[in-house]
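Hey, I was hoping to borrow your eyes for a little while. I've dropped the whole record in just underneath, so have a look:

——
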Amino acid sequence: MVDGTEPADDFAGVPDGFQRLWTPHRMAYLGGQDKPVDREAGEGCPFCRIPTLSDEDGLIVARGEVAYVVLNLYPYNSGHLLVCPYRHVADYTELTEPEVAEVAAMTRTAMSVLRQVSAPQGFNLGMNQGDVAGAGIAAHLHQHVVPRWGGDSNFLPIVGRSRALPELLGDTRERLSAAWPAAAKG
């Protein structure tokens, strides 16, 4: 009951003075869609499936010999990139030396490209190893490259559990891919 006479459900969608940013696409992520349930590679792993798609459909920015760079489908900020080995491997210590070298080189290039295209003031870099460490997809290692700007954290993520992003993922992919050095594209 809202005013004691009608059930609250009758007021669904009625303005109440709050501005809302609806982010229904996040429900897929929150519900675990496309999240591998085990450590197996293949169609169940999005990081194994993405390289089989076109760059545009997979949101791939660059491809290397043993790793690739892709936009995060559920970004913390515009330009949030993931550097992933092609091989389905969960733990950093299981990477081969060529994989370690290319993931590191692609991370450095990603930072340079993001600086050129978006002028961030800083970065968060990291790998969450295992479910308890916060890995959304623990079965396939991926390095986060998150550009940061002064003031990019506000009340929305805390109060509204939403993030406002100023650009569509496809547009971001196009700009970053165009700026990626040709010699480093693979």
Notes: Helices lie at 26-30, 46-49, 55-58, 97-118, 155-160, 169-179.
